[in-house]
Write a structure and sequence with these properties.
Elements lengths: L2 H33 L5 H6 L3 E4 L8 E6 L2 E7 L2 H6 L34 E5 L10 E3 L17 E3 L6 E2 L20 E5 L2 E4 L7
Antiparallel strand pairs: 1-9, 2-3, 3-4, 5-6, 6-7, 8-9
């Protein structure tokens, strides 16, 4: 083999190796760049919006996501649940949520969007001393025994006994003074909710 042929082979090998190293290096540079698009932990703690996928959420089920370091409950209610919200309202302390925190577009019996009335989005923080209320969907739940035989589902705070309905509205004569807060949120699609961004113009 001639010297020129050997040099050409070495040259092709070096070019190929340099290309591979360059591609790998570009990948290492690109990963932090793409990750920089995502909110940092500091930004999330400060209140950056978070996405919640509810595509697999079935009626009667609840999921929890974190926003601003607090749990946010997302509950899909049944038709029976929705009917129950219209009854026994005389037992509620703030039935119309006049003294409670929620966006104006959620000021209704379901405390939810008109187009998505079965979906409830609320902060899982008791308004008494900040404990996390437990979801008690029916009388089969271990907490239900203390809630009475007419329990229609809702939330029970195990710390000091405050009770809320399935809209997060607090019952009268409870330690908690107001309903569970509702964060600003909007729908990115029928199955994706953006929590932390106001949806009043949607």
């Amino acid at each position: 083999m001639s010297a020129d042929a050997v040099n050409n082979s070495k040259r092709r090998l070096l070019v190929a190796a340099t290309s591979v190293v360059g591609a790998v290096g570009a990948g290492f540079v690109a990963v932090p760049f793409v990750k920089s698009w995502n909110p940092s932990a500091k930004a999330l703690a400060a209140g950056a919006p978070v996405l919640a996928d509810i595509s697999k959420l079935e009626e009667g089920q609840m999921i929890t996501v974190e926003w601003r370091g607090k749990p946010v409950y997302i509950l899909k209610r049944t038709d029976e649940n929705m009917n129950a919200l219209e009854s026994d309202t005389d037992m509620l302390a703030d039935v119309n949520s006049d003294s409670s925190k929620q966006p104006e577009y959620c000021k209704n019996p379901g405390r939810s969007y008109d187009k998505h009335t079965k979906i409830s989005v609320m902060e899982g923080v008791c308004t008494h001393l900040g404990c996390a209320p437990k979801y008690v969907p029916d009388l089969n739940n271990p907490f239900a025994g203390s809630l009475g035989d007419n329990w229609k589902g809702g939330f029970f705070c195990p710390c000091h006994g405050s009770i809320y309905d399935l809209s997060g509205r607090v019952y009268s004569s409870m330690p908690a003074p107001t309903n569970l807060p509702i964060p600003p949120y909007k729908y990115e699609s029928d199955t994706v909710i953006l929590i932390g961004q106001d949806g009043s113009n949607v």
